[in-house]
Specification:
globular, about 35% helix, alpha/beta, binds adenosine-5'-triphosphate, 10 strands, binds magnesium ion
Length: about 260
């Protein structure tokens, strides 16, 4: 099985203060298309490093990573940039919006890079779908953390990539605001069959994913299916949605149905 994401014998060794440090140690796993996966583990266990490698933001010291059947570890930088726009939406813990662009302009960037003619219009639709129709012209500094993260999710999903990667997407948000962002990610996963991989420290969030990969000292410590036996058919999201901590005000289906238009 190739899977949507395949990580084979991936190691990452970096040199810091004259010493080489093994950050990831021969990690292997396969994520099938449409699976939702949480990557958990203590601080410093290599979660962000691994996610960055899966997005081709960095190259591993050894090993191979394939996305949708294509080996990204041998790609040139410019080919990778194009490939990333087609295949991957990436969401950072700290939003990473462009401060000199408004919300709608931020969302339009990947669309314009992909040659979309109605980029502005489509960006506006996407922002409405995350409940920000009245914040189009706001600059990031004029938006709350939760609003910025919703802009970041709209931007990551603008070109409808088959893979969404999120590094602690709720790490900088209070639980109610975080719930809205998570609901949005889950709805994209459920309604569009997007493969979703997110790094989190939140146990409730992690176990609402179909699969949990736990890292420790750069190795996979465990690989579990919290809702095992009923993995892909029954949405693991039920666990999440029925969790009072994550009951947000906005019905998910409404949000994501507008992504379809
Ligand atoms: N450029 C670098 N040079 C040397 N060491 C690095 C570099 N980047 C990260 N590290 C080290 O690699 C290890 C893994 O870092 P990483 O950011 O992947 O951890 P993490 O699991 O995401 O942690 P956290 O939960 O705190 O975000 C850490 O010990 C970190 O200090
Ligand atoms: Mg990290």
């Amino acid at each position: 099985m190739v899977g949507m994401i395949s990580v084979q014998q991936v190691s990452m060794v970096l040199v810091a203060a004259g010493q080489s440090v093994t950050i990831l140690d021969r990690i292997s796993f396969i994520i099938p298309a449409q699976q939702s996966v949480a990557i958990v583990g203590p601080s410093g266990s290599g979660k962000s490093t691994l996610l960055g490698l899966m997005a081709g933001l960095d190259q591993p010291t050894s090993g191979a990573i394939t996305l949708d059947g294509t080996d990204i570890t041998t790609m040139t930088e410019s080919r990778m940039a194009q490939f990333r726009r087609e295949k991957i939406g990436y969401i950072f813990q700290s939003f990473h919006l462009i401060p000199t662009l408004t919300a709608v302009e931020n969302v339009a960037v990947p669309l314009e890079l992909n040659g979309e003619k109605r980029a502005g219009e489509r960006a506006a639709e996407l922002l409405s779908s995350v409940g920000l129709s009245d914040r189009m012209g706001h600059y990031p500094v004029q938006l709350s953390g939760g609003e910025q993260q919703r802009v970041a999710v709209a931007r990551a999903f603008a070109c409808r990539p088959p893979i969404l990667l999120a590094d602690e997407p709720t790490g900088n948000l209070d639980s109610a605001t975080g719930a809205q962002v998570v609901e949005l990610l889950l709805s994209l996963h459920r309604d569009h069959g997007t493969t979703l991989v997110l790094v989190t420290h939140d146990v409730a969030l992690a176990t609402s994913m179909q699969r949990v990969l736990a890292l420790r000292d750069g190795r996979v410590e465990s690989d579990t299916l919290p809702s095992s036996g009923e993995t892909t058919d029954r949405p693991a999201h039920d666990t999440f949605i029925n969790n009072p901590r994550y009951t947000a005000e906005h019905p998910t289906s409404e949000l994501s149905s507008r992504f379809r238009s």
